[in-house]
TrEMBL record:
This is DUF4407 domain-containing protein. Residues 196-241 form a coiled coil. It comes from Mariniflexile litorale. The chain crosses the membrane at residues 28-51, 57-74, 264-287. Keywords: Coiled coil, Membrane, Transmembrane, Transmembrane helix. InterPro entries: DUF4407.
């Protein structure tokens, strides 16, 4: 049962192959098995590749099955249409476009499996790329908010400097009136005299201005810090919203690009493996000697071709003979009394026409 299934996969004529030896049947069963397992690997590879795209198991299996059947049909067609002629050069010319197609199929099949085989290495490269993208994304978003935050921080610094400058003036006045009271500066008279009172009043007035400035600038600083906090929250929110895009940066194209960064030698050997698998049915048929199946198939095809040519030549001969017979018949009729009879009747008809025309003209006159 399995052998019969593989023979069907090879695309050979089962009726002809049943008349051949067991060895010939086993040869085509082996070719059919290669075709079947190549299509099976194409199904697995396509399902995995589509799963990385759609992230849906059932859809991936469905479309992978369609791709596997397509590859199976192509391989079966390629093998079944190669005819053994006994001339190696003619067979190679006949198989060359099919070998090119096999190379293309091998590339398509091998790439998804390479992605699966080197999955861990690809994930490491993708992780590094994601980290770089995350940092670049944060820097790009920060460039949108940093100028505003820096300007607000400068405003806070300016407000704080105003308070500090006013505090310095108050402290200077405080030291001045204390020194006046102690007699160490100013009038150098110990005690609280008129000069002391004047300097103390000036200090108290400036201190009141300092308190007002502190209240005003503190409210401004709090409002500015609130704006900075809002900008920082917006920055964090935008980073959080854009991060899933970076986290999902592991699609098929990203993985193929990551695979390109790995050493090319392992990928080359995997490709060569699939190329050998894909071209093995063709090479097996090209390298195998012309067997009983090929002779029987050639005999059947040439018999049909000969019969068609015979029928065609026979129809052409019949047509040619029919033309000759018709020509001869009409030639004989031309020489018989029919010609004389038809000439007489035509003369009578022309005379009647002339008489009718004469009478018509006479009546007019």
């Amino acid at each position: 049962m399995l052998k019969q299934f593989f023979i069907i996969c090879s695309g050979s004529d089962t009726d002809i192959l049943e008349q051949c030896s067991k060895g010939e049947q086993n040869k085509y069963a082996g070719i059919g098995a290669t075709v079947f397992f190549t299509a099976l690997m194409a199904f697995i590879a396509a399902s995995f590749a589509l799963y990385t795209v759609f992230d849906n198991l059932y859809a991936s299996i469905f479309f992978g099955l369609i791709w596997g059947l397509l590859i199976f049909n192509l391989d079966r067609y390629i093998v079944s249409t190669i005819k053994k002629t006994g001339n190696v050069i003619d067979e190679l010319i006949q198989a060359s476009p099919r070998i090119i197609l096999a190379v293309i199929i091998a590339i398509v099949i091998s790439k998804p499996l390479e992605l699966k085989i080197f999955e861990k290495e690809i994930n490491q490269i993708l992780l590094e790329q994601k980290n770089e993208l995350t940092l670049a994304n944060k820097n790009q978003i920060a460039e949108q908010f940093n100028p505003s935050i820096e300007n607000l921080n400068k405003d806070i610094t300016t407000l704080q400097q105003q308070i500090a400058a006013k505090e310095t003036e108050v402290n200077i006045l405080y030291n001045t009136y204390i020194a006046e009271a102690e007699g160490t500066a100013g009038t150098k008279l110990l005690g609280k005299g008129p000069v002391y009172k004047e300097k103390r009043d000036k200090h108290d007035a400036l201190l009141a201005e300092l308190q007002q400035l502190k209240e005003l600038n503190t409210s401004k600083i709090e409002a500015t810090e609130l704006q900075i906090q809002t900008l920082q929250n917006d920055y964090k929110k935008q980073v959080t919203n854009t991060q899933p895009i970076i986290n999902n940066f592991d699609g098929l194209m990203a993985r193929v690009n990551a695979l390109g960064e790995l050493p090319w030698v392992p990928s080359l050997f995997i490709f060569l493996l699939f190329l050998a698998i894909e071209t093995s049915p063709i090479l097996a048929k090209l390298l195998s000697p012309k067997g009983a199946y090929d002779y029987r198939l050639e005999d059947e095809e040439t018999a049909v071709k000969t019969n068609v040519l015979q029928n065609k030549n026979q129809r052409e001969a019949m047509l040619k003979a029919d033309f000759a017979i018709n020509d001869r018949i009409y030639t004989d009729l031309e020489n018989e009394d029919v010609y004389t009879y038809k000439r007489t009747k035509a003369r009578e008809l022309m005379q009647l026409q002339a008489d009718a025309f004469y009478k018509q003209q006479k009546n007019i006159l």
